[in-house]
Amino acid sequence: MPDRNRSTRPEAEPLSWARDDIEQQLMFRGGRFTRVNSWCSFTLAVLMTGVFYAVLFPFHGNWIAGSFFFDRNRETPACIVFLSCWSIAILGLKWSKLRMQRRSLQLAVVPDDPEFVLTPQNVDEVFHRMHERVDDTRQFVVFHRITSALSNLRNLGRVTDVGDILRAQAETDESAMETSYSLLQGFVWAIPVLGFIGTVEGLSVAIGGFGGVLASSSDFEQIKLALRGVTGGLSTAFETTLHGLVAALAIQLTQTGLKKGEEEFLDDCSEYCSKQIVSRLRLMPFELRGDE
Description:
With about 290 residues, this protein is mainly α. It has helices at about 15-20, 20-25, 40-55, 65, 75-105, 125-135, 140-155, 160-180, 180-215, 220-275, 285-290. Helix 5 (about 75-105) packs parallel to helix 10 (about 220-275) and helix 8 (about 160-180) runs antiparallel to helix 10 (about 220-275).
């Protein structure tokens, strides 16, 4: 006899964190939820920086491409490129991990039967359905919330505590999400600062050379030639500021869009828990007496 509590609707393909997480695929230890493994993003940044300079090298005589090499600027452009690549690696990894987390919202963990009521006695059925759909519930935001709430329901039998636990876990997830952007926000601050440092360095070199010419020569033609060198040096110096500002702006805009998507995902997780769990709860008789 078929179990009427079992859904007859075809389920989405089961999720495997060990198989689908991008960092696991790259042979690194995957960060929990949408957090990024720093060593994985660092390694990708090194590779991306190498590819960037390999692609530009044939064109290093060009005015734009040459501004990234040491013959016109010192090490500052390389630092800007590296931090920019590291930021891009973090954003790319987080985007991939967020996509995987969103797939978990397509999986139902309670039967479709509208008469199904979630109680301490049938909590194990929900746990069983979650483990059928994902390999590790601790690695998925929404299933981790549900596991925490239903474990309390099974152990204490208090339906009224489930909503409070889900809300508390939602606040914890929001805090964790903010923390996961800390390194990226540091890079967004550091990249334009590096640009300013490169500019100051270039200015000091150009002005120092011009001062040396003034001290050693009174010939007006030599002073004119030196002044041309100063103006050329000023142009080169300001290139690093341009690099830093453009890179920081692009990273900040991309981060803002990704963070907005992650905030919407957390809101969707709360809505999922409300529909799948909270709406299936009923107050127990002893809780009703307590309310009276």
